[in-house]
# Entry
Amino acid sequence: MIVDLHIHTNLGSICSQLGPDELLNRARELEIDAICVTDHHSHRGADKMIEYAKGSGYPVFRGVEIYTNLGDMLVFGLKRETKYHLTTFDELVEMTEEDGAVIIPSHPCRGWDPKHAHNHSFPREVLGHIVAIETHNGANKAKSNELAQAVAGELGLRGTGGSDAHAVWQVGKCVTVFEKNISNQEELIAELREGNYKAMYLDDLK
Ligand SMILES: [Zn+2]
Ligand SMILES: [Zn+2]
# Structure
């Protein structure tokens, strides 16, 4: 099952231009099997998108991207809203443990790039608290993804892929290919823990 695990919509991220109808159409056109909306610090957009897609039968999952002192983290399964401010990684770990959620550092190796100089090179403090790292981020430069893949290889971590789309043309650039079919949010979290998936550039799949 091909899933774009990292998408920002204009329903929940002020930085995104991506509307629900164009997102669904584009995902279908690309033959991606499901999408996961991961707006910044809010599930509001994901919830609206799930509602919007309900009638169509197209699977939409819910995550959130949280800004921490160790960089942005994708979180799946959080049962609460967080304020849009710096959350410490320790606070995030506490919340995810309470809620049975999983953490995946997004674009973890951007720090070399002057444009993202505030980002870290891979923060090793996250080890032991994460189920994977995002090795394929559609908004990353190739080098950032290559560095993330090298870190994953070196540390024996699994990789996920997501477009980090903020506009329709970016949807589906990177994806996570799950061995199993995932039909709901609980199964998504279980599979992210289980690890039967790999990250890809969609172009390499075709
Ligand atoms: Zn981010
Ligand atoms: Zn993002």
